[in-house]
Amino acid sequence: MQVDETGSDADILRRVIDSVPALIGYWSADLRNLAANEAYVDYFGLTPEKARGMHIRDVLGPEVHELNRPYIEAALAGTPQQFDRTLIDVHGMVRHTQATYVPEIVDGRVRGFFVHVAEVSRRVEAERARDEAISLFETSMHHAAIGQAVVGTDGRWLQVNQALCELTGYTAEELQELSFRDITHPDDVEAADRHLAQLLDGSRTHIQSEKRYLRKDGSVVWVQRNAVIVRGTGADGIIIAQIQDITRRKVAESELARLAVTDALTGLGNRHLLMAQIGRHDAGPLGLLFLDLDGFKRVNDTHGHGVGDELLVAVARRIADGIDPADLACRIGGDEFVVLIRSATSSSEIEKYRSELKAAVTGTYRLTSAPIAIEVAASVGSSWSADGDHSALLRAADKHMYADKSGAS
User: Fold this and answer.
1) Residue 348 domain boundaries
2) What is the pLDDT of residues 199-227, one digit of tens each?
3) Strand ranges (E), 367-408
4) If residue 52 lies in a helix (H) or strand (E), which one and from where to where?
5) What average pLDDT does range 328-341 have in this prediction?
6) Residues 275, 277, 279, CA angle at the centre, nearest 5°?
7) 375 and 282: one domain?
8) Are residues 155 and 112 in the same domain?
9) How many domains does the chain have?
10) CB-CB neighbours of 197 under 10 Å
């Protein structure tokens, strides 16, 4: 706006005040208007001239005046006021406003007060939309079937839902005194901190991972966690997390993995586990002890396969009881067992191992139907005798097996 400098200072000031879209006025101690700008036309249909001398109640209307009366009285008592008020203007338009009353105090006496009323409809609508979004989020979060949480950038729980409380065994108040680290399994804390750092530095905007929590009672629960960072203006933001209990799935997966490498009858490892363990052995002494039951076919033919199975289970138990915890016992065929030896450090130790285990397994087994005596053939192969080729150990042990059987016959 180009100001015409011709005219008095009062004229210039009047033009400035009239160009402001906010309501600007002055009210005397007896609540009569002494000054008003052109904005009063848009709000109340009153020109400054017409408004002058009117009582504030007649300008605002009885309902709004009654709402504003506490603020008017406080301003006349010498205390500045600021408050929000919704008005309906002369055109029927709803206006959200923020009013400021500033008392004029002369010689310790309030002579009246200045009024400034600015329209804040955009701000109010934005706040209303924000509040509705927050309410919708909180309602959805509260009723969600899976755990949901708002987490601070320091890792502390800011807001949690009932499903997360049930999952962890903590109340909402207890969780809000903790961080995610306090309930994360110690083996998973490092990865969780790394994921948080990636969200904060912007290298990732979303994290999906599986991890373990420690419940309040000390039990472990597996969860799938999805987390996104929501950045705020001038702040680090917050992290929204969805946390789903996947313990049953992990237990089922673990059981399937176990069954895939476990002999169903005896509970020992199977050939798949044996070969996998041999393949993983990178260096160092390694031996195989191969055991075979002499006359097992005769047991099956004489007593039936049920007794034969019972004998295999009993033999497996003696083998498992007779080996070092560092070693692995497997059943790789009908009556064929193999022990993967990691605990021995020399060929002589492996040979001693063979003799002791053979003696422990050979003997009489008191089964449900009848006592059955069994002889065991045992042979060994080692990384030394197989030139370090671990996959050749089975072939070496198998070859020695027949020699051991021939010697026993």
Assistant:
1) 261-408
2) 999 899 899 999 999 999 999 999 999 99
3) 371-382
4) none
5) 91
6) 70
7) yes
8) no
9) 3
10) 11
